[in-house]
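Example record

The entry below shows one chain as it appears in the dataset: sequence first, then structure tokens.
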Amino acid sequence: MKTTSLAQNAIACALLLFMFQISSCDDEKEEMETVEPTVVIPKIKFDNLSERFFFIGDVLAISGENFLHENYETELYVNGQLINFSPDSNQLIEIPITDEMASGNNTFHVKIDNVQSDKMSFFLMSSGWQKINAFESNDIVKSYVFESSNKIFSLVDIASGPNSYYAIVKALHADSLGYEEASVDSPGANLSDLKMYDDQVGVAAGGMIGYFTTNSFQSSTTFGDLESYAFETQVSFISTNSCIIADAFGGHVFTEDMGSTSFVTQPFNYLRKARENGASYYGTIKSRGQSTSGDYYALGYFYRNQPHRNLVIKSSNGYDAWEMVDSTTLHTNMSSAKFIDEDLILSKTAEDVLVSSEDLGVTWSDMKTEVESFFIKSKSEWYIVSNDNLLFTNDSGSTWSVELELPKDSEVNHIHFSESKTILSGNAGLLYIKHD
């Protein structure tokens, strides 16, 4: 009996030990199978860029998804270089555009741990003067830029021969590759002038016909006189819904409803008179402008009789009721005169001297020699082209500084200004833009 009891106890102990070992193995197995949860980083997605073309000081805003993660920092790379920044939110990144970035095309992407966004690109236009390669070697009659837009509108002569003229409206838009030609519906060809009020509203003129656009020349409304012969037609005034077109002999077309209707006045008899055997021409108008008092002025000269005499006329509305101001002063510098105000006219003599008048062309004062052409930004700020340099004064000609070295034998046709941008147009594809 005693022996049996001992055997039973041994068996029980062995059984307990076996069960303990099984339990221990199960615990170890359970411990071995415990794994840390996998951290999932969702795909970084770019939905929209505020722009793809920037100047230094602008801010690139990027909207999208998954720009933040609770376990990892968000890294931004521009041209492969890590940039110090913090995302604004999970759906917004704003990148200041600085001069540390490359002028021209730039690429960027965002990275969170080992997850990387697609690469996107933008174009950086440096401050100062920059050449734009557009319109090949065509002559650019004039161009316009605006503060709230990166569009450029130009009147471009696309004629192939040096003595031919065939000007149409063209446009450039800015994107990640720089300035590229945009689609426009140019209103005919052989246009004589273009004037833009902003990046949507503008008028092109061909003869006494105007083309009024309110959508960046995607379309236009035709207005004016189909019969009248016109010479050296200019768009002398433009606003959001009105426009004045004028020719060298005093013919005018006026619209105040974006070209839906128009009012036409015929050339002045003392400048051009129609006859059965052809018109007679007695003089010409070369420049127009509006004074600070609100009156419109036109400057020119009579050439029928010797000696030639100045022509100065004014109007309260710019298209009719013109009054003679001066027709007796001997003609000196009205051929290239530009009206700035009633007490300031600038002109250039045949000897390339910049001259000014404070009495509507009666007397003149020398300002600068070796002047090929000149352009007006304000009453005291002027540009001149001299010896392939663009010079600037902001003190009415007392001092001059070199703004831009131009290619040899450059011919500048036009300069337009917005608050911080300036664009220069000329022959043989000459096109420069400046951003202050």
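Notes for this example: The chain has a mean pLDDT of 90. The radius of gyration is 36 Å.
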